[in-house]
Amino acid sequence: MARAKIEINPPFDMKLSLKFATACRFESEADCAEGRFHRMINIAGTPVLLTITTAGPIEKPTGTVEWSFPEGGVVDKKEVLKLARHIISSSLDLGPFYKLASKSGRMQSVINRFRGLKPILTPSIFESAAWAIMGQQVNLNFAYTLKMRVTQKYGRVISINGRDYSLFPEPEKFLKATVSQLRGMQFSNRKAEYLLGLSKAVAEGNLELEKSGELDYNEALNDLLAIRGVGIWSANYILMRGAGHADCLPLGDSGLHRAVKNMYKLKNNPTHEKVEKLAGPFAPFRSLYTLYLWYSLLDE
Length: 300
Prior knowledge:
Among the domains are: 2-89, DNA-3-methyladenine glycosylase AlkA, N-terminal domain (TATA-Binding Protein, 2-Layer Sandwich), CATH 3.30.310; 125-243, Orthogonal Bundle (Endonuclease III, domain 1), CATH 1.10.340. The chain has helices at 14-23, 77-87, 95-101, 105-113, 125-134, 140-154, 179-183, 189-203, 217-225, 232-243, 254-263, 272-279, 286-296; strands at 2-6, 37-43, 46-55, 62-68, 156-160, 163-167. A hairpin with a 6-residue loop joins strand 3 and strand 4. The chain is 44% helix and 13% strand.
């Protein structure tokens, strides 16, 4: 098994960040047990068992990446480390967001409780886009169930030392899938059409989804909004959790609106306009504003 160190911009609390990822069903508990990220990932067509761990205090963390190729093959070390850094948002500097938050007593209180929380990003933007479609207008547990069903049907399972590792399907794996097959997994008709349409566009090269992280936020947002089935919530979710854009605000997210209501002690759930206004002072870090408010709901 290969191993390398990675630098992490402090503060960073790996256990806290993974706890949020599992509580929100973004990642499975098995893949994030004991404060480590441990998952089978496809890199350039090669299955890679990737493990990311941290050590030291949150103000001075050190990161270690280990990887192996259970089915053989070779992946450039630089690509493995690049992906590992992306997943744990290692280069993200929380300082500017914390400085803005210090001007708000309410937000400062949330940050004091969750200092070092960073987003755990999906290995590919396609995975975040597929999750966003599966998560539309359903609760997180059901969205996770749909994800597991498509992974079992169209992805792969690789067994190592008695443990099964699931490999999320690449977009090409959905080319022969049908709406009726997805309907059998409890997808709605529209949701099945959206997922298959997205997969086809990516697989055939008509949509360069993985480049979204390289684009300006507004340009990337407009590209996503042009995809059938992707609205303002889905587009911001994809850019936030897949591409790592810093200023996303997933308006319409029930958790975000509930957290805003709680923090500002509002009588009713806020409108989109109200959430946008309250989040305004935290631009260009509204993704972190959203993340910390989401996390505050775990105390409910």
